[in-house]
């Protein structure tokens, strides 16, 4: 059975109860999880699995088919065990803030300059996004960041909901990645920053833009023809 993805409906879930369904060495599969697996340009969550008085480190989480695999070294867990999962919340929350900042920045740049995302990597202290911008124009990027920060300061709600694929794909700009969504996804998770951006997305976000803080520009790189890499961090 596929793993139930608790983080899809509640990005703020820090602890959860689950049953171990499979253990192969360091790989532990649960029936449900709030740990976000590596993917979509975001790092995986880390944390702990707790059984009774025993606590096991979760070093990394990844998807294998429909299952979410937790990498748990030196564990003695077996299928049928009940465990409590505890996320490293400080890391998760930094990713949530970075991720919502990224969505807002890309929405601004898409509307102003028509750019699409060609790649991204969100991390805890700094992040980057690649866009198909024709010119490596630092001033253009700075103006987009200033506009983005003005939007973030307005305390705008961030909503998460689901739409059938056919309905979702009628929304203009629903996919800002250069590569479209896989055709086999029938129900699409939507992340909407009210009045700013509406996007198909599977990652964790904050509930209000006021939680993000301020985007701070770090540098702009030329990564080839029509491909520019923007590095940024957040303050505070």
Summarize the structure.
This protein is an alpha+beta fold and about 240 residues long.
Which characteristics define this entry?
alpha+beta, Elongation Factor Tu (Ef-tu), domain 3, Threonyl-tRNA Synthetase, Chain A, domain 2, 2 domains, seven-stranded antiparallel β-sheet, 3 helices, about 20% helix
Characterise the protein shown here.
The chain is an alpha+beta fold and 236 residues long. The chain contains 3 helices and 16 strands. It has 2 domains: 84 residues, Elongation Factor Tu (Ef-tu), domain 3; 144 residues, Threonyl-tRNA Synthetase, Chain A, domain 2 (2-Layer Sandwich), CATH 3.30.980. The chain is 19% helix and 38% strand. Helix 1 packs across helix 2. The radius of gyration is 19 Å and the shape is elongated. The model has no long low-confidence stretch (mean pLDDT 94).
